[in-house]
Known about the structure:
The protein has 25 helices and 33 strands. By secondary structure, it is α+β, with helices and mostly antiparallel strands.
Amino acid sequence: MSDRIPVLLVDDDPDLRAVTASYLEREVDRIAVETAADAADGLAVLSEREVECVVSDYEMPGRDGLEFLDEVRERRPDLPFILFTGRGSEAVASEAISAGVTDYLQKRGGTERYERLANRIVEAVEKRRAEREAARTRDQIAAIAEHASDAILSLDTDGVIRFANGAAESLVGRDSASLGGRSFETVLPEGDDETTDRLLSVGEGPDGGSAVGFRVRLPDGREVPVAARAERLTVDGDRRVVVVARNETERDRHRAFIEHASDVVAVLSRDWRFRYLSPSCERVTGHAPTDLLGERSLDYVHPEDRAAVEAAFGDPDQADGPPTAEYRFRTADGDYRWLESVGSDEVGRDEVDGYVVTTRDVSERKERERTLSRLREWTRELNYTRTTDEAADLAVEAVDDLIDAGLSGIHLLSADGDCLRPAALGESVPAMFEEQPSYDRDEPPGSRAALAWDAFRNEDSVVIDELSSSGRLDESSPAESLVLRPIGDHGLFVVSAPEPREFTDTDVLVAEILSGHLEAALDRIERESRVERLHGATRTLVRAESRAEIAERAVEAATDVLEFSIVTVRLHDEAAGGLVPVAVSDPATEVLPERQTFTPDGGSLNWAAFEAGEPRKFDDIRATDALDADTALRSLLVVPIGEYGTISIGETEPGVFGGVDEYLAGILATAAETAFQAEARTRRLAERTAELERQNDRLEEFAGVVSHDLRNPLEVARGRTELAREECDSEHLAAVERAHDRMAALIGDLLTLAREGDPVTDPGPVDLGRIVGSCRRTVDTREATLRAEAEGMIVADEGRLRQLLENLIRNAVEHGGDDVTVTVGSLPDGFYVADDGPGIDPARREEVFDAGHSTTQSGTGFGLRIVEQVADAHGWSVRAVESDAGGARFEVTGVESAD
Length: 899
């Protein structure tokens, strides 16, 4: 096999892709790098070229690194695949390992990361090559064992070969067909006069056979040892000796392979006893092979695993494939070690009788699986922690359980940012340290504090295998193995042990994954705490009585609760033509010049965010054309308050605001928007109430005018008409009286119309049938028939309901004539008044409720308008339709039942 190592590098960043390829080829000249920009291009390269290792980024357009891994595993299950990813991808590490990634490295750090990557590539490829070579050897041996058969020869009593199978040709080096009829001595070395006699002298039957060893002479003169078994048989009356022979040289080679194999090769009898064990047994289990021969294998299997082993190997002949089982095996020192056994062929020999089982040690893999499983459990528990102390304590317990690092601790940044103080420490820390380790900023180089702060400022893990010889520390420390991992901006995760080289790459990866989840938990706890305090503060916003007060309280919430310093609330003012500053925090007035109105054409970042309707965050406004770019302001976050304005938040340091700050500022803006909406509704309601009060005043004034200024002259006119009738009788006086009556009716309906529009404030249960019956006495029905079919109790103002029914009945009688029949009946959600009169033209049914509309000369045109007003005052609906008899029918619906 060529020593060249072809590698496929997949990364969407062309510059990083080129740099990585150059470094890899420079670090190891055997490495030849082929690159691809994404997973699709990478799969194309794999289908066209020979590749022995894939190095892939995680975050890429299209398929990400794990999806690419799935595709590669489907095509090339055993191809080494290394995930080479940037910051923030630790959360996918455990999933990547479960998916079958060969290795996992981060891109952060100096050029040494490429040396590590190159070494991992070489290790992975050489390991795969070795595994393939071993597998090829095993396959060859398996093929020989499966397809090769022993040589079988049949001799007559004179030692003449009467039959030879195909395998005999390979044994004696002569064509099997040419052997027939020749003396067996022709295949033996010259001078061998004993072998034929020994073969011919064996007894008959299985018990009479015997094992015979001799040498065979090949045509080229070479001699090979042969192991054979000879038995005498009688076939069709002829006595024969059957010789089953095997080249002893191949057997010796096979034995040598077994003797030197790393896996344990064992032969088990059907009663589970060891009949043979290869020498590797002692390395794997601690037991010498001779100590276990004859022992019952199940007795060494952990009691909890015996049922599974018995189920797998109970009847190998019935298994669809090779029986396989994983179980714990008791070692020579009494401990248990995880083993995996795979059954093979049945062996039937004089010296060996049983089933071949190949076993390997899988303890490391099982421990890794256990660690990953426990890691998932610990990280799941971190998701439910409620306080910082609870999360820190849980993380320390987890790292002690997963890595057995009793000197670990969580050190969180103090409020003033000058110290990393212990929040949780491992159980062994108090005994190993004279006082709780606390790390002040700006301590001299070589101190433990300086080392901790260097790691905290770094984005990558700091891993030291032997601290005392590393040159990183001038003062003594009880720790030798050390892993320092930043927990975002929160603090530092310290994982340490008193022994050197205690932590494996898997341990470091576990610490990184755990610290990533701890960072997420602390972010969540901080966010939830600030959100809870923010909700308390924003409740005061809706109680503010003016827009200016809302703005002031929003600034207070931003500064006191969210701990922002430079805060300005601007409100959109059409008269001013832009965003006007309404409330400003004290630090803002100290740092920034006097705030001006930001207009659409002013080029302000505030207006851009307001117009877009979405937040805008700037890590450093000096890199923009911001109006405040020449001030002390650096970080800026602008959040729109809906259509009302913006909240702008700033700090004098660049890159201050993160996702949590943006999230909380958004909550504050939403609360402020809700407060502004409530204030606007309250203001509109107050204006409407004032307008309604003015209308009611005008109606009352109108009612007073009608009642006093119109009725009094009308009564005078009526009296004068009576006096005139006494002096002279004229047909004109009757017309005057009718006019006076019509004027009185108009005045009465106008007064009713003015007062019936008020809402019903105190409805009660009313018997609908009783009210209809009382209308017989109050409405002049003349010769008309009134049928009361309505039943039940409804919720209504009794007096106004009576007015509605009287007007509908009166309207039916006036329009239907003396012989009309008027029916009042019930509806599922109301009642109706119907007649059998001439009805209403469908085109005019909507007009009948208009004020002043009448189809008779005597009508005022206000009766049905009053009906609609009474219905509206109750919250009911009324409509005119055709009755079953072809007349008019008025349906009142939306009526609440009191039954």
